[in-house]
Amino acid sequence: MERPEAEDWMKAQDAEVARVDLRTDIAHSARVYDYMLGGKTNFPADRVAGEKIIADWPASRDSAQAARAVMHRMVRRLASVHGMRQFLDIGTGIPTAPNLHEVAQAVDPACRIVYVDNDPIVLTHARALLTGAPEGRTAYIDGDLREPGKILADAALCETLDLAQPVALTLINLVHFLSDEAALPLVRELVAALPPGSFLALTAGTADTAPERAAIASRRYREAGIENHLRTRARVEAFFAGLELEQPGVALITHWHPDPADGPTLPDHEVMAYAGLARKP
């Protein structure tokens, strides 16, 4: 059930959505990903970009599902094994059930989650993100990884999360849309603002497993106007500098604590993303 403050917030966001040009004529990474997952919140430009990627890489939809599945495993592990009850998810994307708050609150309904995304169309789905368990709290920020200070100072975050207590920062399927020069200092700034005992959960695209195919997929994104940077394992590990990486370290998403419930495992050459989870000492 929606709380009164959530209802007021959503009315304000509805007004903002009405004011913003959604630019549905231009492909957006979140909407392309939604199309790859079989979602319905995408437009012709997104579908054109997605179909080009699928044509070059037929297993790309299965890989997108694997990327979603590793997020579920990471969040479940953070909540059930590490006892995390606060989550800051940046680069939320289009809601695709189960959402992060549903996974965390299935472990403990008291979990608190703040979602952050910069795609105006995600605002139209805020109601789906604000229907968490009544024991917990779920909020949404219209924000951008490139402006960490604004995210950390946002009233919705300050009212939902206690930054004096550990927070799980989740950056799933996001950093490969920024260069190392941009992404590394931004992630470090966010981690630095969190207290000891917090965690960083991150996935990042790679060309290590299939360089030629990955280069083509990356080019398709760029042709659609979407910046794309694929990283080696060592470059992904750089995001976790100074943190305590959990086993198995930075690994292909299908190798990171695999769960038979997620279905058949893709061969490595069909997987183009790494995952890692680390604790701030």
Could you list some keywords that capture this structure?
Rossmann fold; globular; single chain; 8-stranded mixed beta sheet; 42% helix; 281 residues; alpha/beta
What does this structure look like?
This protein is an alpha/beta fold and 281 residues long. The chain has a single domain (4-279), classed as 3-Layer(aba) Sandwich (Rossmann fold). The chain has 12 helices and 8 strands. Strands 1, 2, 3, 4, 5, 6, 7 and 8 form an 8-stranded mixed sheet that branches. Strand 4, helix 10 (180-192) and strand 5 (199-205) form a beta-alpha-beta unit.
Q: Topology, please?
A:
Layout: H1 4-19, H2 29-36, H3 44-56, H4 60-80, E1 86-90, H5 100-107, E2 112-117, H6 120-123, H7 126-129, E3 137-142, H8 148-153, H9 155-160, E4 168-171, H10 180-192, E5 199-205, H11 211-223, H12 233-237, E6 244-245, E7 251-252, E8 273-279
Parallel strand pairs: 1-2, 1-4, 2-3, 4-5
Antiparallel strand pairs: 5-8, 6-8, 7-8
Helix pairs in contact: 2-3, 3-11, 4-5
